[in-house]
Amino acid sequence: MALIPLLPLLAAALTCGLQNNGRRAASVAIAAMLGSCGLALAAFNEAWGMAVGAHKTFNFEWLTVGDTAIPLGFVLDPLNGAMLAMVTFIGLLIFIYSAGYMKDDERMARFFCYLSLFAAGMLGLVLANSLLLLFMCWEIVGVASYLLISFWFHKPEAAAAGKKAFIVTRIGDMGFLIGILLAFKTTGTLTLYNEAESGMLQQHLTGTVFGFSVAAVISLLLFMGAVGKSGQLPLHVWLPDAMEGPTPVSALIHAATMVAAGVFLVARTFPLFEVPLHEEGILKMTHVVAWVGAITALIAACIALGQYDIKRILAYSTVSQLGLMMVGLGVGGVAVGMFHLLTHAFFKALLFLGAGSIIHGCHEEQDIR
């Protein structure tokens, strides 16, 4: 399992040293992604045969602080098996498309370095069996997105869009980090699953924080991170501006990687979202997720109707679709939300790559009027 994110990570390191040979850097990155895709399809085949609720884990001790051991690990189950196949397959197609799209760019090798780092971060996030490892990969995705969105930094709009994406997503990540610390204080572990059945998602959490159940508070803080990454209201403002990067970056962010991370986080930690806000109450965090998603879907779709830039139309369409995924998760349909995430990734990647071809053919014109 560890090889799946490791291959793009090695490709990022290798292409970093090939700054004067863009074609070779593209070949290295594509070969690494092809290898990851093959391994991911094998993992998906294994996960497909697992029973509902079954999982295969590989945990190891990362470091020890005093008497506290901090483990990291990977997990494979039906939830992330399909995600792995989707991310690597669509990522591979975008890598191949990028080889032609960026062929005249003098910084082509660096582009593939950032692209490989982006893919490695997302694959590590999907496989993570520890909230700490998930957060590390989450931040790698955030840094790589900043580098890619502002790749053409000689354009003031691109530089500003990169900074905006980085700062806005950090707002959500602050809540995510506080949620991780609260989860560790409550459960004594950051591992999601382990063989001793004492993982975070295998425990029955008790206790309250400010009158609310501790599980609900943890899930609210984790949802803040998901709101930032998946462009939900009110932290959606960075996503349309992310169109200032090269078109393959837009396709990767909006289809296979970054925006999918927030939806996947909610799906992965879904047992925490099902705990009532109060011991005797009926309201749950899933209701909050559903309402935020519904409002986002409606408002983003209305905004898209008034856009004339072909890529911004698709950007607001993505925000709206992500809202629908959150609605699916919020009404208790993890399979529904994830199914829409997977199907959306394919058609949205095709739309963005098709838009890139149209923009090239129209001499970089993006106005549809």
From TrEMBL:
Subcellular location: Membrane
GO cellular component: membrane
Molecular function as annotated in GO: NADH dehydrogenase (ubiquinone) activity; NADH dehydrogenase activity
Keywords: Membrane, Transmembrane, Transmembrane helix
Pfam families xrefs: Proton_antipo_M, Proton_antipo_N
GO biological process, one term: electron transport coupled proton transport
Record's bilayer topology term: Multi-pass membrane protein
NADH-Ubiquinone oxidoreductase (complex I) chain 5 N-terminal domain: residues covered: 62-112
Transmembrane spans: 25-45, 82-99, 111-127, 133-153, 204-228, 249-268, 288-306, 313-339
Domain NADH:quinone oxidoreductase/Mrp antiporter transmembrane: 128-369
PANTHER family: NADH-UBIQUINONE OXIDOREDUCTASE CHAIN 5
This protein's name: NADH-quinone oxidoreductase subunit L
Protein's organism: marine metagenome
